[in-house]
Amino acid sequence: MAALQTRVFRLLLILAAALLCWLPVAAAAQSPGPVSARSPDGRLEVTLASREMGRAAWSVKRDGRVVVSPSQLGILLTDQPKFDRDIDITNPRVTSVDSTWEQPWGERRFVRDRHTALNVTLQERGNARRRIEVEFRLFDDGVAFRYRFAPDGGWGRLNIADELTEISLAENGTAWWIPGGEWNRYEYLYNRTAISEVAQAHTPITMKLDSGLHVAIHEAALVNYSAMWLRRVSGQQFKAVLSPAPDGPKVVVDAPFSTPWRTVQIADDAAGLANSDMILNLNEPNVLGDVSWVRPGKYVGIWWGMHINRFTWSPGDRHGATDANTRAYIDFAAANGFSGVLVEGWNPGWEGDWYTGGSPFDFTRAYPDFDIEGLSAYARERGVRLVGHHETAANIANYEPQLEAAFSLYQRLGIDQVKTGYVGDFFGVRYTRPDGTIGFATHDGQRMVQHHLHVVRTAARHRIAINAHEPVKDTGLRRTYPNWIAREGARGMEYNAWGTPPNPPDHEPTLAFTRMLSGPMDFTPGIFDLARNDNGNRVKTTLAKQLALYVVLYSPIQMAADLPESYEANPAAFQFIKDVVTDWHESRVINGEVGEYITVARRDRNSETWFLGAITDQRARTLPVRLDFLESGRRYRAEIYADGPRADWDTNPSAIAISSRVVSGGQNLRLRLAPGGGQAIRFVPI
Ligand code: NOJ
Ligand code: CA
User: Fold this and answer.
1) For residue 352, what pLDDT is reported?
2) Could you list the active site residues?
3) pLDDT grade, residue 32 (50/70/90)?
4) Which atom of ligand 1 lies closest to the CA of 469?
5) What's the gap in Å between 358 CA and the centre of ligand 1?
6) What whole-number distance in Å separates Cα of residue 449 and Cα of residue 453?
7) pLDDT at 320 over 60
8) Which of the listed residues 186, 187, 310, 344 should we mutate to test ligand 1's pocket, taking the one with most ligand atoms within 8 A of CB?
9) pLDDT greater than 70 at residue 549
10) pTM reported for the whole predicted model
11) Considering only CA atoms, which residue is closest to atom 3 of ligand 1?
């Protein structure tokens, strides 16, 4: 009996020991160590691993070489402990996607979405035991991830103080960036510095690493959240900083909630960045249904005249938005195939210092010398539409209550496109707090992100497309809301009228690989009068470069920005603006270096005609281009708008050589660009 008892006791001891050994194994099984996944082509690899103090870190390799070193994930809250330590990386799930979707308008009709999805759970240890899902998507040309907060992960209302997301680049190199959080919003000249000298930057920020690899960091699907800036912590280590809120937490949302995607595009060359569809692919499909009422096209407008001081926005001797003036612009548009006529300065509010937001605009009443009803009818009879304008002076407290009535008026008049504007210092957005008092918000914080989408949704109900100036940056939401047709969000043409300094010759080849990675820009090219204006400024490009910008800087709406008389004085060059289209079947960036030059070819969405645009910085250069985008062996009439023999943005900007020749698909061309010059070509199949 005693012997039996001893044997049972020993057995129990062995069982207890086995259990003790097994428990830590089970615990460790929850945290399976590094988790990785690869892009469809196998070249990019993302790894998630635990670091010291149980911090979760993500990293990226390309062809086995580290591009993003282990970088922290996490979130800072105002009313709970932060979420960034004592974390187990659990529950990895990998799936792959390969689908194609169609754009209602865009740089290309069909977009392929091929990626590997890796989802993991960040499980907190200890008392709180909160959980965040992290969703990664690996494309062949980049990596993206976002956080997802679910109620069963312990989340209710989220009061977010900031993100603890980091992006540490493994190598130094060159960065092109504009400062984040400064008074002039996104309207700065791009800095070109070492990556290790960036301060606080807006995104997209574009980098060329010392190894030659090109990287662009941005975000996708910015909805109900604050925009992300990047602050350099040390070396090449960056941290996400959310744009501030006027009061309290930077972001307040309720779970379930997904943050915007944090994106890292990776390519061998600059062209690879510009050819990527990753940002669009990360956005949700169209939620508006039939959007045939969103019409790409070209427009002219009562606009440049104000910027060069020929007209005024406010009433008086030089008022731009008069009946007579508008009729003349409508006639000009109708005669030359433009679909829209923008008229600024048509409504009360422009008197005095309108840009301080103090004299609120009226969006349903026109100045007495602007017969909005009659002019809309006059335009309609000629197959043209007025393009509406809502300058808010960043006073959304005044704008939001008028939105519904303002869009109803435009819809009734057949106006299907509205340019909005938010002139005012960053952090100077007047908004109404829930208690009715006025607060001041930033241009890209959560409140303005909500506002812009509210405007776009309200406009959609009235079948109106929105082109926002002084906007929040583009993050690809045009896929979900195809009536968000364009925006500004960088230094556009207006700076050549009055900017100090005006845009230098390297501005547009910089924009092409920075701002343009985020989406269409209403840059408003096409200034033909390249002489000094009344402000003492001038446009620092050649005439051919002005034409090339229509192809290089993508927008489904393109303005012919100059005064009609400037076009009437140069009908031969104007022919290109009349011929160029704004909606594409396919687009290809053929070559380029950030801030130096770029060549782009695009095929008309509705024909076999191709267009090419090439631009350079202040240096003259010859760019070899193989016409392999044209159908092989097929013959085309190439209508060439090149810089004249002695053209130079500084000394001889208007010299242009217009010629026509027959070329074949597959043939080689050499494009000669003058200092600050460009070249535009239309290829018509014979
Ligand atoms: C700034 C815009 O970018 C410009 O196009 C517009 O003319 C002025 N604001 C006035 O609204
Ligand atoms: Ca502007």
Assistant:
1) 86
2) 494
3) low
4) 3
5) 17
6) 7
7) yes
8) 344
9) yes
10) 0.94
11) 469
